Structure formats: C-alpha cells, structure tokens
Amino acid sequence: MEDFYKKILDNNKEWVERTLEKDPNYFKDLAKGQTPPLLWIGCSDSRVPANEIIGAKPGEVFVHRNIANMVIHSDMNMLSVLDYAVNVLKVKHVIVCGHYGCGGVKAAMGNDSIGIIDNWIRHIKDVYRLHDSQLDSIVNEEERFNAFVEINAKEQVLDLAKTSIVQAAWRSGQELTLHGWVYGLNSGYVTDLKVNLSSNKDLDEVYQLKF
Q1: Helix 76-87 with 164-171: angle, nearest 10 deg
Q2: Burial class (CB in 10 A: 0-12, 13-18, 19+), 202
Q3: Is 144 assigned a catalytic role?
Q4: Three-state DSSP class for residue 196
C-alpha cells in the first residue's frame, strides 16, 4: 500500500514536469477559471474516466459521478452540480454515460444484500420495474444486462429533463441539450443511444413545468 501511495505522488511530480516542458504557462492559464461546454454524469467505476474517453483536456469537462450514473431528483449533490453547470458555467451539453458491465446495474438485477448501497440500488430497480416486460422477454442474461444498462442511461436523461433546473434553462432560451451514452469497457467505444433532448416537450405533459 505504501508503495502505491508513493508511486502516485511520484506520478504527480512527473506529470507536472512533463506538462510544463510542453507549456510553461499551462497551470497558470488553467488557474484563471473554467468554461467547460459539457457536464458529464457518469458511473463511479474506476475504469470509466470521463476526460480520457472523449480526449478532453482539463477544463473542458465538468464531472459528476455516482454508482450507475443515476439522476435522482432528491440528490442534493447531483442537483448542486447540475445547477452550477447549467446556471453558472452555462454548459451547452449534458451527457449521461452508462457502461456495459456496470456493477450497480448488475446488482439491481439480483436480490443479494450488499449493505447501505442497497438503498441506492433500489432506484435502479425502479427503472427495471418500469421496463420489466421488455427486459424479462430477453432470454439471454448478458443481452438482458446490456439492454438494462442502455435503458437505465436513457431513463436518467429523462430524469434530467424533468428537473426544474433544466426546464428553467430551456424556458429562458438557453442552449442546452441532454444526451445518453453507453461506454464499452472491452472496446473503448461509446454508443450514442440517440436520446437527445433540448425541450421539455419531449416529456410526458405531467412533467412539463410552467414558469
């Protein structure tokens, strides 16, 4: 453990030195502020690094991560990130990115108790319940798992659109589009799920807020 800890400190020093060799003002410029065009809501899984997947530099992506990339309407952490991204940073895109092989989604397909995380997983189970007819009709377990990952990401995009934060931005004419992706751990490629929302008219009427 000590070797690993020392290694990451050494890695930081090497990274700073390499970066300054290329651009002596890199960190001075970075410290002046951020204007990222994108908010990324992804999974906490250590194999899904937002910046690297899309080849983005520091300062280009505002990031929020949690288990199974969930958008829960009572999650103040997520809402605070979303509010800052939309209303202060004025991001133009929000991507919800799930990934195949997601442990949180897999856990939601079973009934084993893991611990306090069971309460978080329950939100993912709610997504399964909404689509149980479609998912239960898929005989192959791996295919059903992959389909659930995709469905979950799409549902989180819809839940983003339902927030007062996003709807207020749309109401004021702010340019903001929500997207759903899934990342392939074994390929490196992302799949665009073709759910791209830029108006609350894409939602059921009951969710359309009037300001």
Answers
A1: 20
A2: middle
A3: no
A4: strand
Does the pTM surpass 0.90? The reply is yes
Contact residues for 114 (Cβ-Cβ < 8 A; gap 6+)? 107, 121
Condensed to tens digits (0 to 9), the pLDDT of residues 132-158 reads 999 999 999 999 999 999 999 999 999
Active site residue 43: yes
Cα Rg of the chain, angstroms: 19
Q: List the catalytic residue out of 64, 93, 97, 99.
A: 99
Residue whose entry in the numeric block shows the structure tokens 């829960």:
72
- Is 45 an active-site residue? yes
**Residue 69 near residue 48 (C-beta atoms within 8 A):** no
Quick check: is 97 catalytic?
A: no
Tokens of 162: 């339902």
Q: Is 73 one of the annotated active-site residues of the chain?
A: no
In one-letter notation, the amino acid at residue 177 is T
